[in-house]
Amino acid sequence: MKAESAPSQDATRWWQAATGYQIYPRSFCDSNGDGVGDIAGIISKLDHLRDLGIGFIWLSPVYESPMADNGYDISDYRAIAPEFGTLADFDRLVAEARERGIRIVMDLVVNHSSSAHPWFRAASASRQAPEHDYYIWRDPAADGGPPGRHRASFGGPAWHWVPQVGRYYFGQFSPEQPDLNWDNPALRRQIYQMMNWWLDRGIGGFRLDVISMIGKDVDAEIYEEGPRLHTYLQEMHREAFAGRDIVTVGESWAVSPETALLYCGRDRGELDMMFQFAHVVAGWHPELGKWGTPPPFDLRRFKRVFNQWQAVMAEDGWNSLFLSNHDLPRQVSVYGDDGEFRVASAKMLATVMHLMKGTPFVYQGEEIGMTNAHFERIDQLRDVEALGHYADQIANGVTPEEFMAGVNANGRDNARTPMQWTDGPQAGFTTGTPWLEVNRNHGTVNVAADRADPDGIFEHYRRLIALRRDMPIVVHGAYRPFAEDHRAVFAYARELDGRRIGVVANFTRDPVEFDVPEGLAMTGRCLISNARARQALSGRLSLAPFEAFAILSGDG
Ligand code: GLC
Ligand code: CA
């Protein structure tokens, strides 16, 4: 049922004061010992998330799927994959989460379906089937070869031959993920009906996978932010989202500061916020991209990205705040230190991210400082992207050793190793054999140990999440960057109604002498710190390795 009217634009929306938590179901908790996480496992861990204080879960896909891309290849949009559970389990998850003040935001993949979807089976059996036009088909080129040279994201060509219909279909990701033809109105109607079907079950919204790719124009070789993208997003909003108290987050590797407000400007009637990756791409090898060994971390470049995005969303739109997800390496390994300073740097990164303006997202295991996996052999990998690229990279002259270096730096399986609950067998994730090996460090890095420590990472996250929930200045305060050219320190202020928060963080494993810029100088109450409590932000500060803290000045 749609609500009577939309909530007022001036009121704080629930998702602005809330923190999201992403669950990758395959790797979170296995309830039945088959080595694969499932919905019953998630339900058994909801108290962990309630204690953390999150407001909603972004649930990676749980729909029926042959799992070529672990569920980002959906074969039935209205069913749950048997390995994850049943629709009844899902409804129970929504209800049990709601009892703990947590909403369920579903990941939804509508740029493509699975090649096992009945639509695609019909589409590839006959040109006459109505579903044929639900996908993107082109006749062979004059030489009989594919109609274009575009490469797929997971390696190999993007055009795939189907003899039954004598045509090629377009698949941006793997051949098992044929792109849907958004120019077909019947297809769009089906998608909106399906969205309403889930929303009517009481979910809290959607995370929309690679949404900037709908509305593409393959003939003009425009794959991202194509000519009809915003027309379709506005239609989607009218047909499924309008009048509902939900959150919608679009994922895009193409959205830029110039285009961001087209998606999430208040009056656009499209989405609430975007996941953008400029900070991620800024850290990659300049020529080889994510498969090259990354250059040393450059804090100034990192700050430029965040400062720019904070400025873009200062008056309109809304930022998402994250360093980690199921496609990215573990943040403490990339931007912090996963050895000696693991705990300090995990807390430092959280402090910097959670006190910016926007909605923070915590990826499972981040709240206990889980680290990258350190794979040694190709056969330890499970990810379709890494395995798909292996052949391409070797053909390009990359050695297997170099390839593994790239995988260990940026591969997606880093984030997908099972959640580490205990120091027991398989980290308490499963009683069976996990689908992907458990990280060897689970003896020390696990939920039980971290939560038993009053100075643990979990406790630091819990306090940051509570600050946002309780303090309007954390939600709405204007953002002001400082010391933008400093190579070691990230510093900013938030300001609202005469109150101010100052945030300072040392991003290095060395002590740093930091001269506080005049405009940032203040005294007040220490809101949070990963080292000693500080009341003054002025003069020359001696910062410990990875030290981070925030001070509140003004009344209250
Ligand atoms: C998004 C997902 C990623 C998936 C891809 C194709 O980037 O986050 O996991 O492989 O889209 O659906
Ligand atoms: Ca299971």
Output the keywords.
single chain, 556 residues, alpha/beta, TIM Barrel, Oligo-1,6-glucosidase, domain 2, Immunoglobulin-like, 3 domains, eight-stranded parallel β-sheet, five-stranded antiparallel β-sheet, 18 helices, 17% strand, globular, disordered N terminus, binds alpha-D-glucopyranose, binds calcium ion
Sheet/helix structural class? alpha/beta
Summed up, the domain count is 3
At the fold tier of CATH, the topology name of the largest domain is TIM Barrel
Instruction: Give the CATH H-level superfamily of the largest domain.
Output: Glycosidases
- List segments where confidence is low: pLDDT < 50 over at least 5 consecutive residues: 1-9
Number of helical segments? 18
Q: Largest sheet at a glance?
A: 8 strands, parallel
Average residue pLDDT:
96
Beta-strand content estimate: 15-25%
Instruction: Please state how the strands of the largest beta sheet are arranged side by side.
Output: 11-10-9-5-2-1-13-12
What is the straight-line distance between the termini? 41 Å
CATH class value of the largest domain: Alpha Beta
Task: Classify the helix fraction into a percent range.
Answer: 25-40%
Name the CATH architecture of the largest domain: Alpha-Beta Barrel
